[in-house]
Structure formats: C-alpha cells, structure tokens
Design brief:
- This protein is mainly α and 197 residues long.
- The chain is 69% helix and 0% strand.
- The chain has 8 helices and no strands.
- Helix 2 packs across helix 4, helix 3 crosses helix 4 and helix 6 crosses helix 8.
Length: 197
C-alpha cells in the first residue's frame, strides 16, 4: 500500500504568507539558523558571516516554497508551518554544508597532531567541548527554554555583549530581557551541579 502525502495547497501557502508577521518571524528564523550552525555544525564564523549565510539560507528556502514551488509542505509530516520552514532551512543548511565539504580537496598526508597550526592544544578543545555539553545538559535539566539555550551558545562562542547576543538569536528587546533574567537565575544551579560532579 502506498503512502500518500498531503501537500499544502497554494491557497494555504498564501494564507501563511499573508497572515504572518514576517519581520518578527524572520528574526526568529535568523536566530534558529545561527543556533543550528553553531550547535549542530560547530561553525566558528564571525557574526557578519553567520548572519549573511543565515539570510541567504532563509531567502533560498522562502523562494523555493513560495516562488519556485520546489519545496512542498507535507502537512501530514509538519502540521505547523513554522516546523515545516525550520525543517526546510535545516535541510538546506545540511545540503549546503555537505556540498561545500565534498567540494573541498583534502590533503591525504595531513594527520591530526597534538597541536594544530596555531598552537591550540587538541586536549583543551576537547575539554572545552565536554564542559560546554555538560553545562548545556544542566541547563536543559533545569528547564531552560530554547532562548536561554541560545544565549548560552552565544556566550560559549565568545559573543558576550547583550545587544550582540540579542541580534544574533533574533529576539525582541523584551523577549531577550526576560530570557536573560531567566538564564541568570539558572547560573547558580549550574555552578552547584558542576561543583558536585
């Protein structure tokens, strides 16, 4: 028996296009892109590079959905439009980065040594990554919301100015203020749990 996919009609897509606050939604998508790139793919780009890549990825996906019609919204799989577009952006990022990796020529003779070319100890990188994962886990266990996790990711990547963090993750000033206050309250919980380990 064949699986049937229920694809959103043109009318339903146009409804999503016209009934959405795209300025606010765009900022959320930019924040989500930055989070995916940093958290899942571990990119270390500067903010302007990150924002440029995110803008291009979102623009391409929106174009594929609303203009070209080459990316269909399977409403059986993604009931909510936001889940669909985030999934599509995630897929687009994955495809773009994988393509870039395949196009890069690797030098077979290079091996991983204890020191990289700029003198950073590989062991320090691994310890830093493990600590970051531990803190992220403690945050999640303490009930941190997605925006608090985004704040932590920015801080872990060296983005420390509140305004820079806010624009990176795409929150309004009020949303950021609330998320920042919740995040600060969890710092003591994190310190206690890490000290106990």
């Amino acid at each position: 028996m064949e699986d049937f996919k229920t694809i959103a009609s043109h009318e339903l897509l146009m409804e999503q296009l016209s009934n959405r606050d795209w300025d606010k939604f765009w900022l959320r998508l930019m924040g989500r892109c930055a989070w995916i790139l940093r958290k899942r793919y571990g990119v270390k780009w500067k903010n302007d590079e990150l924002q440029s890549f995110s803008r291009d990825a979102i623009s391409e996906v929106v174009n594929q959905i609303f203009v070209k019609g080459s990316r269909n919204w399977n409403i059986d799989h993604y009931v909510d439009f936001e889940d669909f577009i985030i999934g599509a952006i995630d897929s687009h990022i994955n495809n773009t980065l994988n393509k870039a990796v395949k196009e890069t020529e690797f030098d077979e003779k290079k091996t991983l040594s204890d020191e990289d070319p700029i003198g950073v100890n590989i062991e320090q990188i691994i310890i830093g990554k493990e600590l970051k994962e531990q803190i992220s886990k403690v945050l999640q266990e303490s009930g941190a919301k997605e925006d608090e996790l985004f704040i932590f990711e920015c801080l872990a990547e060296g983005i420390v100015k509140p305004e820079e963090i806010r624009t990176t993750i795409g929150l309004s000033e009020e949303e950021f203020h609330n998320a920042w206050r919740r995040f600060k309250r969890k710092r003591e919980i994190i310190k206690q749990k890490l000290a106990a380990k």
